[in-house]
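From the shared-data thread, chain only:
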Amino acid sequence: MKLGLVGYPQVGKRTLFRLLTGQDPQRVSAAEAVPGQARVRDARFDRLVSLFRPVKETPALLEVLLLPDLHPDASRNADALRSLADVDAVCHLVRGFADDTVFHVVGDVNPARDVKAFLDELLLADLLFVDRRQERLAKEQRGKRDDRAVAETGLMERMRAHLDSGEPLRTLALDADETRLVSGYPLLTRKALLQVLNVDETEVGGGPLLPRLATECGAAAGAWALVSARIEEELNHLQPGDREAFLADLGIAESALERLTQLAQQTLGLISFFTVGEDEVRAWTIRRGSLAPQAGRAIHSDIERGFIRVEVTRFDDLDQLGSENRVREAGRLQQKGRDYEVADGDILHFLFKV
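Structure, as tokens:
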């Protein structure tokens, strides 16, 4: 699952990408897509590491793609939009900070305008694709009847009407057959969307800007997150104790990168479960709604194939009681079968035989 980081020039994309992935994209052209992996900052994982003190720590990772800069002239954004077709969720970084030393590509800082312009571009790209697809379907059906083409033609008409109303396609209900019909199409407004507002320190403690923007831009804008890339860069150079003091001075409990990586994971429809022990504490990433055998497959296909049952410990129980033995003694260790839907934060031990 891949998260695409996109935005106009001078909004802080490269700084945020470097903070998330540890990679410096400064030597790469702004017209190129840059891949990287970001650690999901999860306090539950850190707590498990402190409890088990394992030889190896393996956190959950997100694949992040830094995409080419957007241009205020929509006709010049073909490459950036084409790159978006390859991601599963879109992370749009929006400038909300004022700084006279950093130019704005349009001339002034106006995050609502930038968000709406980006939403319009996504909508237009999908409208153009649907129009082209309708023309092709019409040609394919001349002189013959193809049930699949007829069904897709009806779907394209519904999509066209939905887009014409200004609504993204992710809000259009599709059945399983319709989802399969369009699964390979580069429809950008079907993708999950996260707006990340890059602000200065006056807003990081919960200023009025983010709620106002969320209301002004509406549900079509997707989910929202707040980050100050400048502050996160300062935090990145501090020792843990100094970091906590710095955050306390700002009136916030945790780094925005912690909230952002978890929100990005949620936006992608993913959750984490954990395996623990003295050898390794590891976070595994699966799709929300996965059953126990499917979760086992994330570790090894043999677990799914030979699945017998899974032992489930709730994170809150282990956190409260402090050890697996105490969880077991308290009767809170659960035995689940193949129909168990794994919950975010579960600690699992699989029993299988092949």
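The chain has a mean pLDDT of 89.
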